Amino acid sequence: MKDYIFDLDNLFVEDKVKSAKNLKKFQEEEMSQNENNEQKNLENCLYDKTMHCPVCDYDFKARAIRKGKTRFVKSELDLRCIYDPVSPDYYDVIVCEQCGYAAISSKFNRITDRQAKQIINNISINYAHKTYPKVYDVDVAIERYKLALLNATVKGAKAGEKAYICLKLGWLYREKKDAQNEISYLKSAIEGFNLAFTNENFPICGLEEGTLLYIMSALNYRLGNTDESKKILGRLLVKTNVPEMIKKNAEDLRELLRATHK
Ligand SMILES: [Zn+2]
After folding, report:
1. pLDDT by residue (tens digit) across 231-254?
2. Residue 131 Cα to ligand 1 middle (Å)
3. pLDDT grade, residue 122 (50/70/90)?
4. Separation of 18 CA from ligand 1 center, angstroms?
5. Which of 84, 121, 174, 255 is the most buried (most CB within 10 A)?
6. Where are the alpha helices (DSSP H) in the chain?
């Protein structure tokens, strides 16, 4: 009788290769499905707000976060706030995609005729129409804040407005773990806010004096300027009419500064 010999160790070799390929395909499909779901969830948090451009008179849509669709998680030492799932900072710059005029939302409509002319002559003239994705990531947000900073420079905005944009850019670079750019923009924020303290009235871009003193002290602490940080904190601690939350943060920062000098 004829016998058949099998290499039983390798009987399923091809099936195993096929199975591994199928598993990989399945995992990839699942991942892309998850990404799609995440994208859809984020899209559900946003809507299109109709805006009118005060520079070129064009009506356009600006992405905005639906009420109650994002949740405050925590704030860092210098009051950078973390939200889930959408960061309001990503959507705070309004860009007219027609003429390139961009500003933080609280300043978008506050523009004089002279400033509008400066935007038309210096920005719109070189601006190519740009469409942004439906959901922004940190890089899109950085691009929009930089366009807002360019517009602020061209329109001759006050130091406080430019400093506020630099503060947000510093925070966005922190999110990207790009320490070099973070530090550069935070230094500019400190420089601009110092000028604003002398020359501008509060609130500055929505920040009251006590809050801004606290942020300045925390920024200096982060950049290693502990003497400056202490000096500013001293100014804050003798102030009255400071919100409770800021007082509490200031006391925590004072403890940190004490520990640094031990
Ligand atoms: Zn426009």
Report:
1. 999 999 999 889 999 999 999 999
2. 13
3. very high
4. 56
5. 174
6. 13-44, 113-122, 138-154, 159-175, 179-199, 209-222, 226-237, 244-260
